[in-house]
Amino acid sequence: MNVALTFNVKPESETFHEILSPNLKEETKSAQSMVDTYAEWDTWDTINAVKFALECLNEVTLVEANHDSFEILRKLCPDIVFNVAEGAYGVSREAQIPAMLDMLGIPYTGSDALTLAICLDKARTKEILSYYKIPTARFVAAETLSEVLSVDLNFPLIVKPVSEGSSKGIFSSSFVTNKKQLADEAERIIVQYNQAALIEEFLPGREFTVAVIGNGDESTVLPIIEISYANFPSDIIPIYSFEAKWILDTKENPLDVFRCPANVSKELEDQIKKTVLKTYNVLRCKDWSRIDVRLDKNNIPNIIEINPLPGILPNPEENSCFPKAARTAGLNYNDMINKVLFSAAKRQNLI
């Protein structure tokens, strides 16, 4: 097949470790805001790895997701698009390339524009989950400081931007234990990210992330990954924050936080898989997604968020959960990418 690979690439100058000083606690809020601007975008290493995987069986053309994308895709008219583009502007940014492709009638991998837009809005996602009685932490989405002051939730709380991915906006300070901290964090989110602050009750149990490939009855849950905070630095709050994901966790010195397959009972494994698959289907995810789960005080799996454009760093020495789960399931990187492409092609009757 003729495949177009749509993507966004981090600016070459963007290096988190150079921007942040060694003492994370001393960083200013403005520096935090600056450093996570391109956190969702991919590096050339990842883009080239995906291109190489697809070239095993297909002709591949790179198409950067920018103002020229529509005309390029219209003229190119590929058989299918492998989409990993995160977009740049607005709360619907992940949906922009799929919306273009729908207009052009070009098939593509992954979820459609509606699902991508909904999943990026964490509050809307949680409302849908709640309607379908899928467990998720109690929450409020506050657009103003006056709304923050009237929040009726039990401390401790987690405060994060309502429409960001890749742990953008989530720092150790996002874990709050009193009203003063809550007000400060909510103000930081509202002002710096120009969006509502999602305020959630903190779930105290074990944390997992679960990769899914496929559609309908053929949806496959890959081996569950546990995120263990036992080896976290003592001065870092045990949440998978921006600091943990992008600053402390490096290729040269990866954090020892992932256990795959997770050491869980058969009962808990089945519970997690059932909750994840119900979430995947309720939100109409397609072809692949990674879904984050945390246990509440009663050890019931709760959905934290859904990642229909999961991170896929190719280097096994770097912590990237979807490829890690795939490798545990016996899929190398090329197999994983082409399995997603195959799922999309089969769903759209291209093969």
Distance between the termini: 10 Å
Rg calculated over all Cα atoms: 20 Å
> How many domains, in number, for the residues?
2
Shape: globular
Q: Quick check: average pLDDT?
A: 89
Report the portion of residues in β strands: 15-25%
Instruction: Please trace the helix and strand order, writing H or E for each element.
Output: EHHHEHEHHHEHEEHEEEEHEHEEHH
CATH architecture of the largest domain: 2-Layer Sandwich
Number of strands: 13
Low-confidence parts, pLDDT < 50 over ≥5 residues?
Answer: 13-34
Reported for the largest beta sheet, the result is: 6 strands, antiparallel
Specify the number of helices.
Answer: 13
**Structural class by helix and strand composition:** alpha+beta
Q: What is the CATH topology of the largest domain?
A: D-amino Acid Aminotransferase, Chain A, domain 1
CATH class wording of the largest domain: Alpha Beta
Oligomer: single chain
Estimated helix fraction: 25-40%
